[in-house]
Each structure stands twice: as C-alpha cells, then as structure tokens.
C-alpha cells in the first residue's frame, strides 16, 4: 500500500456499515433478547447478524483478507490486510435505548490501522478516516480543536471501572487535573473529538475491535492517538489508548498517566 488508501477500500467500508445499519436500526428500542457472553458483557442478535453480513461482504470482495471481529473471532489475522469489526460498540447503550453506540469498521495493513469508520446508524452520523485523506463527518471535513492546558480539557472514558489496579490510580491522577471527566459515550466520544467538540479520550481494557477504527478518524482530523507509552497503535496493542485533539494535551495526559 502507498501513502493513500484507495477509493475502492473506502467504498467497501461504507458498504459494510450501510449493510450493518439495515440490521441495527429496526432493532433499536425494539423487543430484543439480550444474552450474556462469558465475560458478562451483553450481546444481541443485532450484534451477531450485523457482523455476519459484514463478514460475508468482505469474503466476497476480498477473499484473501483477514478479519478480526468481536462476535466471531479472528480469521487469517496474520494477513497483510485485516478488517477489524465491532458491529455495535456500546451494546449497553444500545439495549437501554441510548443512541451513543456505533458500528466500527477498520482496515489494518501489516498490523497498522489505515482506514476507520465510526457509524451511528440511528442518528445517521458517520465519521470516515483513512491514510492520505482528511477525516470527514457526513461528507464534510472534520477537524479537532486546540486546547492548550490540561485544566481546560474535557476528558471522556466509557466507564471508570475499565481501569484496574495501577491503571485506575493513573486515570485518577489524570481525571483530577482536567476540567470535566465524562463517561458513557463509547466510540461516539472519539467522533466528537474528531469534530472538535471535546479534547481527550483515555481508556483501557479495550479489544482490538474497540480501538482500530478510531485511530484513522482521530489522526485524519489532526489529532493524536497512541497507547499510554506514546507508541503507535497496532492490532496487537494492549488496549490502553490516549486520543487527543491537541498534541500538547496528549503529552500532558501521557505524563500524568505515567506519574511524572
């Protein structure tokens, strides 16, 4: 792959979220059974069917590509091109009628996310980021906002319970220094960051399918997204992430998390 993701891949990614949205929208705020997975997280038939249809589309269009999905696991994860799928990121929001969930689709090349889509199918909101392209929100360029001081920053995390042990202490140090800590937005917070409505998202305990699509969206809008050590995120990262609209805030957050 050169420095620019091709229009063909961008088109396929949109077809994937279009197809998943056709399954998710009718199920939202409807009577739907909720099962619990081994880790006690909720899952519905909408999660499973949305991932299934996306996998079928990928298999038809790119039969040699790998796939990593939340509901059906990994297939050829060692391939040069790997699609990373989370059909409903924020299933707890979905099953309780809160429209702050999203479908996440990423394409990784040799382990690095190069294309990402955050799609909110009920609100019809879509962020698309890709290497060599500016991030767009519903077709219009999205841009992060400046934030000079950590004390002025709005900080998001899905749930304070996602931080364990030393990570919990580190996050507490950071949350005491920001303007406001906010919770419960899952992937939607990263879209808001890319569009310049908030400043910082810090999370831990994420799966590969939780963060890969977010990296190109944030970076293509002018933001910074790394692991807690400041290293580039890959499909093998440890699930601790920092996303910031301003590099100064990213640096400050990383220092606070490290205790320096």
Structure description:
The mean pLDDT is 96. The longest helix has 21 residues, at 7-27. The protein is globular. Strand 6 and strand 7 (112-120) form a beta hairpin. The protein has eight helices and 15 strands. The strands form three sheets. An eight-stranded mixed β-sheet has the order 4-3-5-6-7-8-9-10, with helices on both faces. It has a five-stranded mixed β-sheet with strand order 12-11-13-15-14, with helices on both faces. It has 260 residues and is of the alpha+beta class.
Give the strand order of the largest sheet, numbering strands 1, 2, ... along the chain.
4-3-5-6-7-8-9-10
Largest beta-sheet details = 8 strands, mixed
Helicity level: 25-40%
Could you tell me the radius of gyration in angstroms? 17 Å
Distance between the termini: 38 Å
State the secondary-structure class: alpha+beta
What's the tally of helices? 8
What is the number of E strands?
Answer: 15
Beta-strand residue percentage: 25-35%
Q: Helix and strand string, N-terminal first?
A: HEEHEEEHEEEEEEHEHEHHEEH
Residue stretches low in confidence (pLDDT < 50, at least 5 long) are none
Q: Mean pLDDT, as a whole number?
A: 96
The coarse overall form would be: globular
């Amino acid at each position: 792959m050169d420095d620019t993701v091709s229009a063909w891949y961008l088109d396929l990614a949109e077809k994937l979220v279009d197809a998943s949205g056709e399954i998710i929208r009718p199920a939202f705020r409807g009577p739907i059974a909720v099962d619990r997975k081994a880790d006690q997280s909720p899952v519905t038939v909408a999660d499973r069917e949305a991932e299934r249809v996306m996998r079928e589309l990928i298999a038809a269009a790119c039969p040699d590509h790998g796939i990593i999905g939340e509901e059906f696991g990994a297939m050829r994860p060692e391939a040069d091109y790997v699609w990373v799928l989370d059909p409903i990121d924020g299933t707890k929001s979905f099953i309780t009628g809160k429209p702050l969930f999203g479908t996440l689709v990423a394409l990784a090349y040799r382990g690095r996310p190069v294309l990402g889509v955050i799609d909110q199918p009920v609100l019809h909101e879509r962020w698309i980021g890709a290497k060599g392209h500016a991030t767009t929100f519903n077709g219009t360029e999205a841009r992060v906002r400046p934030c000079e001081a950590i004390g002025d920053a709005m900080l998001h995390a899905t749930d304070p319970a996602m931080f364990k042990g030393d990570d919990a202490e580190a996050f507490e140090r950071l949350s005491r220094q920001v303007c406001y800590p906010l919770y419960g937005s899952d992937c939607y917070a990263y879209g808001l960051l890319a569009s310049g409505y908030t400043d910082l998202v810090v999370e831990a305990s994420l799966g590969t399918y939780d963060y890969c699509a977010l990296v190109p969206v944030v970076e293509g809008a002018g933001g910074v997204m790394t692991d807690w050590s400041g290293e580039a995120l890959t499909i093998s990262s440890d699930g601790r992430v920092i996303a910031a609209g301003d590099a100064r805030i990213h640096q400050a957050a990383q220092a606070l998390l490290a205790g320096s």
